[in-house]
Amino acid sequence: MKPTINIIHHLLTILFLIVGFSAMAQHQDMQFFRANDKTGLNVFETTKGDTTSFHNLKVKVGGNFEQSFQALRDQNTATSMTQTGFTGNVNSLIPLTSGFDLAMANLNIDAQLSDGIRVSLTTYLSSRHHEDTWVKGGYIQFDKLLFLHSQLIDNVMKSVTIKIGQFDVDYGDQHYRRSDGGNTIYNPFVENYIMDEFATELGGEIYYHHPSGFFVMGGITNGELDPTVVGATKIDSATGQVNHYSAAFHGKLGFDKQITGDLRVRLTGSFYTVRSANSNTLFGGDRTGSHYFDVMENPNVAKGTTISNENDYSPFSGRYNPGFSEQVNTFMVNPFIKFKGLEFFATYENARGRTIAETGQRGATQYAADLIYRFPQHTENFWIGVRYNTVTASAQGLAQDITINREVASAGWFLTRNIMLKAEYVNQVYQNYPAANIFNGGKFNGPMMEASIAF
Fold first, then answer.
1. Are 356 and 334 in contact (CB under 8 A)?
2. What digits encode the pLDDT tens for the residues 72-102?
3. For the chain, which terminus, N or C, has the lower number of CB atoms within 10 Å?
């Protein structure tokens, strides 16, 4: 981790001030809150079933830390090629060895401002994509509006949640289970999906929760990771007009209920759509990077740029970004079933979109299935699991659809509710890439191990 001395000094000052004002609050619970530790497993959107009482202002300082060990190996059959501005074969792969990857860490600050009003701020202290400190985002969540002094509104808010700020867009359910920089404790595997749906955008979401277990959400955002007030100058190839920055809309309809003491059933469908954007990053908005380091990467790419660190220049190893930066229309279905210690979580996703230089939309389809068994009964401190993940997509500039398949087997152990160890073996194969593409005949496999702390 590489924060400067000044950054460390300022962070410690802030931490000491917060601790000084809220030392007694650190052991108190937040309202309508997902815990940072093991108790946050299989928690999706916060519900209205919270029973935590409010007494006064509370501030909770938390963190996530992870360290992984990698022993992956990769190979390809791509044709040797040179390219102007680069040295050597641009289709060769970085020689890999076994070793520790860069550790990642998050800082979480949550504050209970009033009864039913909570604010959350997450900062990436260190990550593969940005080794220095970066603010992920923050939001305010309203589950009560007592300051309006309205009995009618108080009754409405018993079923309604309002979120406003820069936050994870609630598209699909996988983003509740993914690794996010140093926060890896919710993920039974080391890495996320091949096509990773994750973006922090500025906007708002409104949830309605019905006592039967049904819920619905509607959201609107600016469609951008990095907002801008600079007017557009580029011409949209599909319309022939100057590009404009439309609002993005997303929504979710779902059912989530503990049917019996042993059986929980959840099923959701969600969508995300934006007609025109400055640079949409729904499939590439992760500012921390992949947890598979340097696989299927070329060592000459970084040498041909002003950025000398390949980790930062190409941080998404093993993932596929369809590149829908201008227009996106996508939907996802996620079933989740937990019977005693056995969990099944699956994803079907169909996405279409384009860049500003394209006149027509391309498509990408993703399937994934996780089967996890947690044991022993009551504590569930251990688990074994398998995942199958496949993506088929029409890639820009390629004549035929490409396919990427991944199989993963994992095992893990919660030493305490704050400390987790996990290991996995992954095998990923690239299909239908042309001979001149670095992914032609590409594959990587091998074991990974990861330690994670969350509080």
1. no
2. 999 999 999 988 877 789 899 999 999 999 9
3. N
Contact at 8 Å (CB) between 118 and 33? yes
Question: Cβ atoms within 10 A of the Cβ of 299, count?
Answer: 16
* Cα separation, 206 vs 156, whole angstroms: 12
DSSP state letter for 10: H
Q: Which helix (H) or strand (E) holds 151?
A: helix 151-156
Answer yes or no: is pLDDT of 6 > 50.
no
Element (H, E) at 5: helix 5-22
Q: Which residues contact 280 (CB under 8 A, 6 or more apart)?
A: 199, 223, 224, 248, 274, 324, 325, 326, 327, 328, 353
3-state DSSP assignment of residue 175? helix
> For the stretch 433-445, what's the b/e string if a residue is b when 16 or more beta carbons lie within 10 angstroms of its beta carbon?
beeebbbbebbbb
Average pLDDT along the chain: 91
The whole-angstrom separation of Cα 97 and Cα 75 is: 13
Give per-residue pLDDT as tens, 261-308: 999 999 999 999 999 999 999 999 998 999 999 999 998 765 555 444
